[in-house]
Sequence to fold (633 residues):
Amino acid sequence: MVLYEKIKKYAAVLILLTALQVLMALISVWADEGSLADKLAIRITGTEGEEIISAWEGDNHELFFFLPAYADPESLQIIMDYQDAVCLNGEMLTNGVECGEIRLNETYRLTYTRGRREYETTLTFLRSDNLPAMYIDTESGGMDYVHADKDNAEAAIMRLYLTDGTVDYAGGLKSIRGRGNATWQHEKKPYNFSLLQEAELLGMGRAVKWVLLANASDSSNIRNKLVLDCAQQFGLEYPPDSEWVDLYLNGDYRGVYLLCEPNEIHEQRIDIGTEQTFLVSLETESNMLAQNLPYIKTESGQCIRIRESALNRDLLLKIWQSMEDAVFAADGVDKNTGKHYSEILNMDSVIRKYLLEEIFGNLDGFRASCFFFFGDSGLLCADPVWDYDKAMGNARDIRYNITNPNTFVVIREEDWEGMGGQWIKQLAQKQEFSIRCYDVFETEIYPMIKQAIVKRVNEYVQHLAGSHEMNWTRWYGLDKYRPLADECNEIIRYLFDHVDFLWSVWIDKNEYATVSFLGGMNNVYYSVEPGECVEEMPVEESTETDEFLGWYYRDTDMPFDPIKPIREDTILYAKWKPTIVGEVKKTAKYSTIVLIAVMFMIIVHVDSKRTRNCCTDTNAKRVAFKRIIWRSI
Fold:
């Protein structure tokens, strides 16, 4: 019984500590009087409307007003809901004061009192240059519900202003909701929205459904736009139209977004009709399962999301499986149907899509967000394009570091199942495919691609400069600011070097061996001339829980010899060994939960024994059992 009483005391202490933590959190909320940014806003009067934009507070408590391109300082008014004194460069601010003397991009000294204390910070007015401004006000007045779950949708009202202040669109939204997979995890989130009826937006075709891409992984904001704009020059049929906007949600500036046409079967989008047609995309199975989305899966493990389809699943899978069987067959013929892969695939479409994905170095090329449609031709067409924020040397995340332009991206090796893309590797090795692919690259793509890239990127720099500074300040902080020109120069360098690498392999027939380092902090790839050694290896460091043992050959499980010349494609993997701390942490991962559960069961068990000793009738036992539960809780 002594042990029992001690356990009850320990349980009480744990519960008390938890209660104290909750109480401290509540006290901190109650004590928070709110930021000055919550009390300041600015009214913008344009030629066809009036909008109110909230102030934004940076990490160092500096304040900003992010103004749209059409904002005229003469038409600005400060809106202030603050009882104590606020001064701008020593002059008292009052509610409704006009800002005609304000100079853009200049930092002002802002002082304010709260109670008996005086505080000092800065206020800066930044203005966009050339982008339309989109305002969306949700029915609830906030984004908490939409952001709580990607499937949550809310009605809203939208206004879209051109750079001269005229209204391009004003009306209700049936819904705004989240979108994306990895991109949804960012604080700067992407959205889908639907108009109440079809309408043109910024000159793009009339439709109901639209997409706002956040480009949170691409601080330049140009990668998606560049590929969508170049797709037509690659000979693809249905590239989505897109335009940048400055987005304001419920008066809060959210940064530069790319307003896009979604990929859908529609007369203004993918105009293939709705009879005996379908639109699908290659995806990872884990994403399909997590979101309960409709898909089929081939024998090679390729997962295909069903976007729109007039065909049933069995027929759709039959077409895809026949294509794969033909591609994997030595003679290129599906033994079940007798069809060659060129009778199932639109070869011109696949070749041009493959060139686009490889030239732009797309991490997800033929793996995820890779669309195909099936139309009147009765062939699978690799079109339209989508999702390039991790392209052009920007593939730096928890799994990949594909920043080296002198290596292949689309046909790289993987170290985990479920990525798909196996069939495109097989197809790329077919002589018929490679001959036609290299010819299109040499005669059509290479002569125009560098000039096209430079022309478009230079136009983007001029167009985005002002909004880039606002977006960077909002999401990255001015202390880390990089001019858009510097970011774009990195993109150009990667593309030029990567295109030259492809020319050296495909046209000059120089031989390279690919060395794949898999299973480390990132997957890293290098191309090495046969007989040469790898100049550098990824640096992996042991952690508290795992010891890095070195790089090992995947086929022999022997340690990698860095001074041994590379003669062929080589796959290496990182070997790790759990440390003692790691083993302990794995064992103790749920120790707190287990301890509380055990104590709960002991208390219930002991009290129930006590109760059985003193209770005889059924009703008394029920009452005693309720007492046991409440006492334990």
In short: Residues 57 and 598 are 47 Å apart (CA to CA).
